[in-house]
4-hydroxybenzoate 3-monooxygenase (Streptomyces variabilis), 406 residues
Amino acid sequence: MTETPASSNSRPPQRFAVVVVGAGPAGLTVGCVLRAAGVDCLVLETGTRESVEQRPRAGVIEEPVVRGLERRGLAGNLLERARRDTACEFRFDGERHPFVYHELTGGHHWVYPQQFLVTDLVREYADVRGGAVRFGVRDVRVHDLDGDRPSVSYLCPESGHRKVVGCDFVAGCDGARGVTRVAVAGRARVARHDYGIGWLALLAQAPPSADRVLFGCHPDGFAGQMPRSPEVTRYYLQCPPGDDPESWPHERVWAELHRRLAAAGAEPLTEGALIEKRVLDMHDYVTEPMAFGRLYLAGDAAHLVAPIAAKGLNLALHDAFALGDAFVERLLRGDEAGLAGYSESRLRQVWDYQEFSQWLSELYHGGATGDPFRAGTALARLRRLFSSPATAAAFAERYLGTAARY
């Protein structure tokens, strides 16, 4: 249930066509699309601008998403600075198995840390396109979502007073723990899946041992290497869910990485200081529908896909493109088709990516379950990936996000 604001008997002092809750990639992209069309909108964010721009996150971006950003004038720095990956490498049975997906599809991944993209989007929305934004707000609430005069209220960080903003639509882009997801908790159907594993996410001040992503499928657990720059490397180690990062000192981390990524003829890993250690519990959820009255959810407010397949940021940006364009069509041309079909259309891709993540998880982790049957089928999948051209091509399309259009 949504609340009725204390000032609902009087006209709200401010009004925007759209209020966007959350200044992450999805919310800022929606805002940029709206401002490019001349639509007035307000972005509300509980964090400071500095914290939003410095929040470290992975940034594997699919080529269709990059092209979507480029068409909307949002990819300038990305195209100049991002790394392009054309191949990855699987390591299992003590051997190296390069997978050159560019040769199969002509496509590639772009690696651009999410905080860089967010910094670009904040600047474009607020400084270039003149979008209204309030950082550091508190106690955001949404009101009257089922009526034709919804509003959003918040505590002003300077005065401490509650301010009410009227709008035509609310874009809920405030993540898994945000107020917009909470607002529909009693009305939404939420499907959840827990993988029963964790990943120890590491950032090392050390050059990568190979110029490509490495996937180590080992009986003792998955390991991954994701190059970030010539001096910094992202690593992952499978661990129990809820594990304590402090139980992984420097020596233990590097011993496990050396062991799980070992392969004949491979260059040894270069060790370095670990500047980040945190445990990610692998789980997914999908909220259905993604629209409730005048509220439309995007990104993690609507769905979470574990980082197993690096799809979360990409799904969020696909949502933002569709939602921003649908708002423009409705507000400027009176065409309601985009908003009416938003939830159904987006959920098709969300479920497709969830299924791929689950399939890939079994490939990565099946051999470490202690179940001989799952270990055998995981190994069969890996071998088929390198013996069947049809399987390799299908995997490459799904891995790159080029298989389907939504």
Notes: The first strand starts at residue 14 and ends at 21. The chain has twelve helices and 19 strands.
